[in-house]
Amino acid sequence: xxxxxxxxxxxxxxxxxxxxxxxxxxxxxxxxxxxxxxxxxxxxxxxxxxxxxxxxxxxxxxxxxxxxxxxxxxxxxxxxxxxxxxxxxxxxxxxxxxxxxxxxxxxxxxxxxxxxxxxxxxxxxxxxxxxxxxxxxxxxxxxxxxxxxxxxxxxxxxxxxxxxxxxxxxxxxxxxxxxxxxxxxxxxxxxxxxxxxxxxxxxxxxxxxxxxxxxxxxxxxxxxxxxxxxxxxxxxxxxxxxxxxxxxxxxxxxxxxxxxxxxxxxxxxxxxxxxxxxxxxxxxxxxxxxxxxxxxxxxxxxxxxxxxxxxxxxxxxxxxxxxxxxxxxxxxxxxxxxxxxxxxxxxxxxxxxxxxxxxxxxxxxxxxxxxxxxxxxxxxxxxxxxxxxxxxxxxxxxxxxxxxxxxxxxxxxxxxxxxxxxxxxxxxxxxxxxxxxxxxxxxxxxxxxxxxxxxxxxxxxxxxxxxxxxxxxxxxxxxxxxxxxxxxxxxxxxxxxxxxxxxxxxxxxxxxxxxxxxxxxxxxxxxxxxxxxxxxxxxxxxxxxxxxxxxxxxxxxxxxxxxxxxxxxxxxxxxxxxxxxxxxxxxxxxxxxxxxxxxxxxxxxxxxxxxxxxxxxxxx
Length: 620
Hints:
The chain is mainly beta and 620 residues long. 4% of the residues lie in helices and 46% in strands.
C-alpha cells in the first residue's frame, strides 16, 4: 500500500523584516512546531508512515504516537478498519520527547479515515449523436472501457419527457437522500444551436424508472430577461449539504447551467445556478450568476476534493477551445462579496491532446485516491481519459474509441454497486460483459451502532491454465504428462501487480507464465498473489502434478492450506470451528446457496478464530 509520511519541516523565521537564525529558537520547539501529517490525513486512503525521531540542531528527539481508536487506526499509522460509505475521524497524537531535559510535548492531529466505497462497476449515461438525442447507458469494470446496455437501444426516450423531443448532456448525481438526480439539456440540434429554452429534471431510486419534469424558461420567467434565453446548456447538479430546508433538515441539489439571451443582458454564455425545489420538479427563484471567465463558458462540472478541501470546477472555453478549471474553498462567495468572487483564476488548459474537446466529466475511481478527467474528442470519434492524484496534474491514460453501438457524447460516469448493476442488467440486457463483483470486507467490529469492516477487499483470482494447444480452463488442480507445455494466465486480465512462487525456485512478476518441457521437478503448488488497485492482496494456489516416473510427486504436509485473514492471504496452520460457509462461482461471484448444478465451484469456510479457508469443490 502507499505510505504517507509525517514530515518535519525546518525553516527560518522573519518578523518585521528581521531574520532570526534557527538557533534563536530551541530545536525542541522547532521540532514540535514543524510536525505535520499533510493533507492526506483529511481523507486517508492508505497507511501513514510515522516518524519515530526528528533531528534538529544536532539533537535527536524521539516521537511516540497514540491513536484514539485503534479499531480504525493503529498507533503505528496502519489502517485497521473503515465504516462503509462514510469517513471516521480519529485523533492521532504525537508526543515529542527531549530526553536531555525530560521535556515532552503532545501534538494532536485529526485524521479522517476514508470510508469503504461499496461499489463494483461504473455506469456511463450519455446521448449518442446529434441525430439521436436520447439517453443511453453503458457499463464498465474499470472506468475506462465500456459496453453499451439495452442491446444498443435507448433507456430514456426523449419524446416522452422533453418539450423539444431531444435530450442532451445528461448529468447524474447520487445524492445522500437516496435519490439519483438527472438533468438534461432540452434541445433538438436540428433546430440550431440557439434553440433550447430549458431543461429536463429527472429523479429515480434505481436508475431504471425516472420521474420527470420540464423547466421552460420563457414561461417560468415571463417578463424577465431569463425568458429571452436562447441557450440553457449542459445543466448539472451538486449536492449542497449546507442548504437549510426549513424543516430541520439540510441538503438540496444545486443546479448550474450556462445561459445566453438574445436581449443583450447575457451577451455570452455565463454559468448561473438555482436550487431545485424539494420535489425536484422545478427551480426555486431566479437564476444567480455563478461564474464566467469573461468569455463564453460552458459544460461546467464541479467536484469536491476532501483532501485539499476545495471545490474544483472544470469547464470548456467555448470559442477559444480547451478545458480549464477554477477552484474555491466555499461553494458560495463570502457574505457581501460579488457573485463569482469565490473562484480562483483559471488554470492552464488541462486536456492532454491538441484535438477539439468538450463535455468534460470528472469522477473518482472506486476506493482509490485517483481522479479521472474525461472529455469528448468529438471531431475524431473517441473519448479521451486522463488521471490525476490531486486534480491538478493530469496524465493521459487512453483514448476509448466510439463506434458501432457505443458512440457516447457529453455524459456522466458514476460508480454503482454490484446490486445496482445486476438490476440494471436485468432491465437493460447487455452482451459480452461480465460485471466485476467487489465484496465488502468482512466485519471486524461495531462502532456507534455501525459495522466496521476491514480496510480493503481482495479481488477474486480466476485460475486459468492451458496445456499445450488446448484451450484455457479454470482449475486449481492440474495433471500433465512429462514434457508438456503449461501456461498460467489467471484473471483479472487487466491486473498490474502479480507475484508468483513455485517449485524448483520458480518466481515471476508477470500475469502469464509458460513452463516448457516440464518434468517432476515442476510438480507442486504454484502460489500467485495479486495486488489490486486499492492495494489489497488476494491469493490462489494452483496444483501442478507432472506424471514423471523418475520423479514422482509427493503431497506436502496436508495440515497447511491457503487461508485469508483480514487483507492478506497467508500460509497458516488451520485450527478452529467452521461458523459459516460461502460458495462462489469460479469467476468469483458469490452464490446465494450451495450450488445444485453440475460444475466446479469455490467454497469459503469462515472459522471461529477469524480465519477463512478456501477450497475447490465439484458439484454433481
